[in-house]
Each structure stands twice: as C-alpha cells, then as structure tokens.
Write a structure and sequence with these properties.
The structure holds two protein chains of two kinds. Chain A is an alpha/beta fold. Helices cover 37% and strands 20% of the residues of chain A. Chain A has five helices and five strands. Chain B has one domain: Hypothetical Protein Ychn, Chain: A (3-Layer(aba) Sandwich), CATH 3.40.1260.10.
C-alpha cells in the first residue's frame, strides 16, 4: 500500500517527529511504500541543517536523511510554514535577502498542493501531531 | 471503518474525550505517546478494538488494562491497512 505521512511536530518540542520516523521504518519493513513525508507547521524545523542536538539526544535529522538515501523518500517541507520559521533553501534565502539558507540535504520546499496531491494519490494518510 | 490515533494524555487536554465523542461502532482506537496514560483503564475507552503502543507504555511505566491490547509498530501498520480513514487527535 502507498502511504503519505504528515508531520506537525518539531524535533525537540514534541514526540511526533520521532514517532513518525518509527512508523516510517515499520512501514518500509512491512513492505509498504511511502509516497511522501510532508512536514507542516512546526514540523518544518525537522529540515533545518543548523540544529545541533547534544550527543546524548536523538539526532532525527540524520535519521531522516539516512532513510531518504536508502529508500529514495520524498521529504517535502511546506514552503510557507518554513519561511515564517526560518527554514530556507539557498535560493529562497537569496530571494528574501537573508544571509544564508539552512535547508538540510534530502529535503525539498514545496507548496501545500503537494500535500493535496499526495493525499489524492496515496491509499492512506497518517498525521503525526505536535 | 476509521482508525483513531490519540497521542495526548487524558489528564492534559480533551483529545481523548473529543475522540470518544466521535468514535463509531466498529472503529478502532490506538493510544500512542502520552495517550498511553489512558491505557491503564477507565477513561471510558471502548471495550473492543482499543490498542496501545507497548513501547510507549513501557517507557512511561504504564501497565496496560486487560481491555486494551498492547501492540508493536508492525501491528500498528497492519491496523492502518485495515482501516480508512485514519484520524489523529492531538489538540
């Protein structure tokens, strides 16, 4: 079956993103496909390359990136939610005249239409609240 | 039939009570994250088709009531394939 996951939680303020990651691994192990993981609201912080969690805490970013590399996951970040929270690609940063971008490798910025399209195409949509 | 997912403690908000107001016969309910605090019993949980992530209950020292079935992530995935839509209650 084809799944889309929607992540509302920032990495260190709620458990939602960590749970989504656990669920994504279980999905792939069960032989299902993930069409898209859509990061929305505070969930966009998952795509910041500048987060530097202490070594004794979970590093969700590297785990998402490893999953993206190994399974060619589509990790999409809502561009409007990301702009107001300071998660920018280099091109967005330059367009908005900011000093630098910080969008992590493996993530892409896109509009809410990508969530609508993923919902239409997927058999199931599972939301992970913040 | 719907799969309801509750991730908030019954002591800190109305996610569970809102869910229980909306749940229909034949729906399933899974308690995850702080939602597992309701798995100790009471809280008006449905007698059938109520599940809880065992790992999340163990992480919090919650003992799961007899009417609630403790499951792992693979079983959660299976429940998602058996139900549609899947509704998350987190506010």
């Amino acid at each position: 079956m084809q799944f889309t996951l929607v992540v509302y939680g920032a990495p260190h303020s709620s458990e939602g993103a960590a749970t989504a990651l656990r669920f994504a691994r279980a999905l792939l192990q069960s032989g299902h496909a993930i069409y898209r993981v859509f990061f929305y609201s505070d969930g966009v912080h998952n795509g910041s390359a500048l987060a530097a969690p202490p070594q004794d805490e979970q590093d969700l970013l590297s785990q998402w990136q490893a999953l993206e590399r190994n399974h060619k996951l589509d990790l999409t970040i809502c561009i409007a939610a990301a702009q107001r929270r300071g998660v920018l690609s280099p091109s967005e940063a330059s367009r908005l005249e900011k000093t630098s971008g910080n969008l992590a490798d493996g993530f892409e910025l896109a509009g809410l239409g990508q969530l609508a399209e993923a919902s239409a195409v997927s058999d199931r949509v599972v939301t992970f609240g913040g | 039939m719907t799969l309801h997912i509750v991730n908030q403690s019954p002591y800190s908000g109305c996610a569970l009570s809102d869910c229980l107001d909306a749940i229909a016969e034949g729906d399933a309910l899974i308690l995850i994250e702080d939602g597992v605090y309701a798995a100790a019993g009471q809280h008006g949980l449905p007698e059938k088709q109520t599940f809880c992530l065992t790992a999340d209950a163990n992480a919090r020292g919650v003992s799961i009531a007899n009417s609630v079935e403790g499951i792992d992530e693979a079983r959660w995935v299976a429940l998602c394939t058996q139900h549609n839509p899947i509704v998350s209650w987190f506010k």
